[in-house]
């Protein structure tokens, strides 16, 4: 098999689409985190629960998790088509892989949250913060890939 398996112009366009898509997912995760922090703040203050915010957070979470995993696999596919070497950009790859692992982990943990005093709330919160930090790192590393 000879690489690249994809036209250089098409690859450049797909790289930009990948970057734009994952930047959009990052922005949505920031919004999602803000919703989660709003819920957490109200719950810890023993204030009335913001049910519309809770509903939005619960509905958006699985969609974003799936979107994040999809973004990773699109990037993985692009690199495989272009060079065939998954470790062409190792820091960006391993950051994305860590994001995927944490997305799956937090989704599993979120399914176990039951009631206001669930012991799974704090790990869910901590993993969510880690996901956001890794997304910003991946975006920074991705700029290095693009430039």
Description of the structure:
- The protein has 147 residues and is mostly helical.
- The chain has one domain.
- It contains four helices and no strands.
- It has helices at residues 8-44, 51-82, 90-111, 121-146.
- It is elongated and about 60 Å long.
- The chain starts with 7 loop residues before the first helix and ends with a helix.
- The mean pLDDT is 94.
Task: Show the helix and strand layout.
Blueprint lengths: L7 H37 L6 H32 L7 H22 L9 H26 L1
Helix pairs in contact: 1-2, 1-4, 2-3, 3-4
Order of helices and strands: HHHH
Low-confidence stretches: none
Q: Number of DSSP strands?
A: 0
Mean pLDDT: 94
Strand coverage percent: under 5%
- Counting DSSP H or I runs of 4 or more residues, the number of helices is 4
Radius of gyration: 18 Å
| Class computed from helices, strands and strand pairing | mainly alpha
Globally, the shape reads elongated
Largest sheet: none
The share of residues in helices is over 70%
The tally of structural domains comes to: 1
Terminal Cα separation, in Å?
27 Å
Please outline what is shown here.
By secondary structure, the protein is mainly α. It is built from four helices and no strands. The radius of gyration is 18 Å and the shape is elongated.
């Amino acid at each position: 098999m000879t690489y690249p398996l994809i036209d250089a112009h098409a690859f450049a366009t797909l790289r930009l689409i990948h970057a734009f898509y994952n930047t959009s997912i990052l922005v949505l995760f920031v919004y999602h985190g803000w919703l989660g922090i709003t819920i957490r703040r109200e719950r810890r203050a023993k204030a009335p629960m913001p049910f519309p915010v809770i509903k939005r957070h619960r509905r958006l979470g699985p969609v974003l998790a799936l979107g994040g995993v999809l973004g990773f696999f699109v990037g993985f596919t692009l690199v495989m088509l272009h060079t065939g070497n998954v470790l062409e950009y190792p820091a960006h790859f391993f950051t994305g892989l860590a994001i995927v692992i944490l997305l799956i982990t937090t989704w599993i943990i979120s399914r176990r949250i039951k009631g206001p005093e669930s012991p799974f709330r704090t790990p869910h919160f901590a993993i969510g913060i880690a996901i956001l930090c890794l997304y910003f790192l991946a975006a920074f590393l991705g700029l290095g890939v693009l430039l």
